[in-house]
Amino acid sequence: MYSRRQFFRFLLGGAGLLTGLASYGFVLEPGFRMSICRHPVSPTNWPKGMTLRIAALADPHIGEPYMSIERLEKIVEQTNNTKPDIVVLLGDYVAGHRFISRHLSVRSAARVFAKLRSPLGTYAILGNHDWWDDPVAQRTRQGPPLAQKDLEAEGIPVLENSALKLFHQGKPFWLLGLGDQYAFLDREKGYIGRDNLPKLMSQITDDAPSILLAHEPDIFPQVSSKIGVTLCGHTHGGQIRLFNYSPVVPSRYGNRYAYGHIIEDNKNLVVSGGLGCSILPVRFGVPPEITLIDLA
Q: pLDDT tens, position by position, for the chain (296 residues)?
């Protein structure tokens, strides 16, 4: 039997624990923590002896106080310190929640991204929020949206259902960028995508290995086994993740493609935990990350 004093101690202790967890989830992890997550990937069709380090930055959702320009500059510096061969930006540059004390333009973030350094350069794709936040693009259902214009104005190519042939260590490979799968909101039809995987694949003209950039991982079951690795963002690892499980994942496949390196049918998928937050500014168990993919 608890005494009254013990009961109130228990209540105060529980309240303190909940306050501490809330402070960590809403302030410390999303706003201050940063990790570098490394994924060694060895596709069966990757050339022997060819190594490639990819630094992937996904879902920055820029806007103060969580993703300020100053914080983005530190992320870019950390990314450069990993010595990547190529850097890819996986979409959702626009803030994905309303808890913003100061909105920042994608152009201001693009100026920071332009400081990324790698031998093969920096390439980007667009995410759903980059389309949703542009009222003209939503009304006309045409691009390019403002986010794409801002990135390209700072010299960062945006791959929209387009393929690019690059060379590394004297060998070729293809970098493919898929259009967003949920670009337009339609009250009757739901989401309408910009993605065109058959068109994208038709641009590959030889047997060189390929890397696919796709904002959402839901496309993965349709991806050909010819693709060496598919790189995605969008899910943020669920933002809350405990014991490799996320209670809410913005994917029709739930936890199947929520986070990390997934191998299915001899195909490789890497889903980044991302940098920012969507809907609510909370992260617990999946801190913001710079994602490194070492292909060999």
A: 444 443 334 333 333 333 333 444 455 655 568 999 999 999 999 999 999 999 999 999 999 999 999 999 999 999 999 999 999 999 999 987 788 889 999 999 999 999 999 999 999 999 999 999 999 999 999 999 999 999 999 999 999 999 999 999 999 999 999 999 999 988 888 899 999 999 999 999 999 999 999 999 999 999 999 999 999 999 999 999 999 999 999 999 999 999 999 999 999 999 999 999 988 889 999 999 999 999 99
Sign, Cα dihedral of 141, 146, 151, 153: positive
User: How far apart are the C-alpha atoms of 289 and 275, rounded to whole Å?
Assistant: 6
- The CATH classification number of 35-295 equals 3.60.21.10
Residues 6+ apart with CB under 8 A from 156: 89, 110, 113, 114, 122, 123, 124
Domain ranges of the chain: 1-32, 35-295
Q: CA 82, CA 293: separation in Å to the nearest integer? A: 11
**Whole-number Å distance between alpha carbons of 88 and 175:** 10
pTM for the structure as a whole? 0.90
d(CA 219, CA 212) in angstroms, rounded, equals 11
